[in-house]
Amino acid sequence: APESGGDLGDAAPSLQRGVQRVYGTKHAFAAVLEGGKVVAWGNPNMGGLIPPVAAAAVERDVLTVSSNIGAFAALKEGGVVITWGDAKSGGDSSCVRCQLAGGIVNIFGSLSGSAFAATTEKGALIFWGEPPLPGGRSAS
Fold this sequence. Notes:
Layout: E1 19-24, E2 28-33, E3 38-42, H1 52-57, E4 62-67, E5 71-76, E6 81-85, E7 104-109, E8 115-120, E9 125-129
Antiparallel strand pairs: 1-2, 2-3, 4-5, 5-6, 7-8, 8-9
């Protein structure tokens, strides 16, 4: 179904060549192209539409992407993380924005949940999105 990523829509021309890796949420996909540009398609509320501010940031230099059930997180050169998708699933990372502004070495999305974790150069763990268990909490 188009709303679940089954129709490439406006992303189709960008995906004709140079696709390096593809990632998915429950209802959207994101591809990293040569040069580190990210293109997304599918349900706009689940990561299929990259908002303008994030889109400018993922035009180049993306090393990898992680996803969960409803959002994406892109790791760029320099250790910066850019997020988009469902806000509660971690598409809104404003609670940890300063911590994701550099020095991140790995990002991980929960496979069937709504959270992300990232590790820093210094070995610290940062997490955001919905807590996986009642009583859990996001980093701040």
